[in-house]
Amino acid sequence: MTRIICKEDREIQLLNLGMPLAFLKSIGNTLELKSRVEDVDGAYFYLPGIINYEILKDKYVVPIYSSGESFYMILYDEKTQNIIHFELENDQVYEDYSNNWELLLMDIMIVYFDDHIDDELSIEDFISLGNKIGFEKSKDLFQFRNIPIEDYYIKSEKAKEWRNEIAKGLKIL
Predict the structure, then answer these.
(1) Could you tell me the residue ranges of all domains in the chain?
(2) Crossing angle, helix 149-156 and helix 159-169, to 10 degrees?
(3) What are the C-alpha distances in Å from 101 to residues 96, 121, 172?
(4) What angle do CA 156, 136, 109 make, to 5 degrees?
(5) What is the SS3 assignment for 110?
(6) End-to-end CA distance of the chain
(7) Which end of the chain is more exposed for a tag (fewer CB within 10 A), N or C?
């Protein structure tokens, strides 16, 4: 049977499942990620209506954060624990982070970098955001992403491969 961890128990459960405290405290409270890492009110509103999704079957479900109609959650049972990303309208996992919090945080930082590719984002601002969410490899990630714009666009064509290459370089994968 699928069980949704109630909102009152969510924070302690997330910490028990290994979530970095800084990240937990930043959800819905970080101006730089305002539209990207939102609180979980939407998840708790919609979850009862999608509780029969196959991806949630026989799991404990703990919302991490929302991003529009996308949700990031931990699903676990006696044997497995997975951080996943899925969208409200689809009963499929878009990204399975296994239990790799650093990979999830890296992806958040990559999206932030990419959102500001034309804004001359400073390394200091990037590191500051990383500190706010508990991502300790911001400086190195910035250096991997801060390449000449022509190279950036070429690498962006194979975004998943580039992301995995960076994750390996940061010793996250």
Answers:
(1) 3-99, 102-169
(2) 110
(3) 11, 24, 9
(4) 30
(5) helix
(6) 32
(7) N
65-81 burial: b if 16+ Cβ within 10 Å, else e:
bbbeebbbbbbbeeeeb
How far is residue 53's CA from residue 95's CA, in Å, rounded to a whole number?
16
Task: Please say whether the dihedral angle defined by the alpha carbons of residues 91, 94, 98 and 101, taken in this order, is positive or negative.
Answer: negative
Write out the two tokens for 113. Answer: 């970098």
Rounded Cα–Cα distance for residues 123 and 126 (Å): 5
pLDDT digits (tens, 9 = 90+) for 23-77: 999 999 999 999 899 999 999 999 999 999 999 999 999 999 999 889 999 999 9
101: which residues sit within 8 A by CB, 6+ positions away? 18, 19, 20, 23, 83
User: Residue 126: what residue type?
Assistant: F
The tens digit of pLDDT for each residue in 11-37 reads: 999 999 999 999 999 999 999 999 899
Q: Which of 136, 139, 130, 97 is nearest to 26 (CA)?
A: 130
